[in-house]
Amino acid sequence: MGCCFSNDDDKGSQVGDPHERTTLLGNPVSNSSTRPGCDDYGSGMKYPHNQRADEQSALNRILHETATNVIDVSAMNSHLEQHEYLDRARQYNQRVAATAQKYTYPQKRPSLLLDLPATEKNLSASPIPQKDLKLLKSACENAVNALQEIKVQHQEELVVQFGIP
Amino acid sequence: MKKYLHEIMSQIDGIHAVLITDRDGVPVLKAATESAPELALRPGFLTTVGMATDQAGKLGMGKSQRIACIYGKYQVIHFNRFPLMVSMIASSTANTGMLLGLEAELSSLVQDLKAAVDVI
């Protein structure tokens, strides 16, 4: 068993020659300085000011949207002071009292079904006698027959001729 | 207005209280019977529900409109009518569907109260 190891610097290859340790993408730190616009930033304020403001506003907007959309359960401990609670309750009472004077109750929709106050009493009452029921039915039948027998009796002419020569 | 709330409460069996509060739990209009649980009428409880409603609206399913919480003895229905919150406390055996249907009857009243609260 053995180990093949060398800690000598590679002095054989010349500086700049590509070898197995040459990075393909180059130095990421030095690469950022080659971006267009960054040279100008370092040299003095040629970077457009309004573009910076737009980026800042976009960042603020993203931050605000994220804060709005984040579900934060731990923020549920807002406590109202007792005096503030009482003050606000009193203010609401005053405003509600002022509003109540102008308030009109919404019109109830007309309904054929009405609530009975004592349903057990009404449902357990004795039904109407059969004799009364027969009387009601015969009276209704007579009324219907009388309506059907209504006829128009023709007495005189409806169209009258005026004495026009 | 309180009389109107009591009339609405008499329509459905099992309703113990109807509260219209702001987001901090301060009652704007309250109608409650003696059987209403006192803990459910406290601002701490109502504030928590208001915040839960707001946070529930961030779950990606749209704004939360109603929350129904059914407990062992009671059920609590909340309608989200920003900046107000309508809360109804009823027995757990009450008809939940009819309670949810009361939203339409309370909408005109809540609209008038919103104008009173918005000024503050």
From TrEMBL, chain A:
<keyword id="KW-0967">Endosome</keyword>
<feature type="compositionally biased region" description="Basic and acidic residues">
    <location>
        <begin position="8"/>
        <end position="22"/>
    </location>
</feature>
<keyword id="KW-0458">Lysosome</keyword>
<keyword id="KW-0449">Lipoprotein</keyword>
<keyword id="KW-0519">Myristate</keyword>
<protein>
    <recommendedName>
        <fullName>Ragulator complex protein LAMTOR1</fullName>
    </recommendedName>
</protein>
<keyword id="KW-0472">Membrane</keyword>
<keyword id="KW-0564">Palmitate</keyword>
<feature type="region of interest" description="Disordered">
    <location>
        <begin position="1"/>
        <end position="37"/>
    </location>
</feature>
<dbReference type="InterPro" id="IPR028209">
    <property type="entry name" value="LAMTOR1/MEH1"/>
</dbReference>
<feature type="compositionally biased region" description="Polar residues">
    <location>
        <begin position="24"/>
        <end position="35"/>
    </location>
</feature>
<comment type="similarity">
    <text>Belongs to the LAMTOR1 family.</text>
</comment>
<dbReference type="Pfam" id="PF15454">
    <property type="entry name" value="LAMTOR"/>
</dbReference>
Automatic annotation (TrEMBL), chain B:
<dbReference type="InterPro" id="IPR015019">
    <property type="entry name" value="LAMTOR3"/>
</dbReference>
<comment type="similarity">
    <text>Belongs to the LAMTOR3 family.</text>
</comment>
<dbReference type="Pfam" id="PF08923">
    <property type="entry name" value="MAPKK1_Int"/>
</dbReference>
<protein>
    <submittedName>
        <fullName>Ragulator complex protein LAMTOR3-like isoform X2</fullName>
    </submittedName>
</protein>
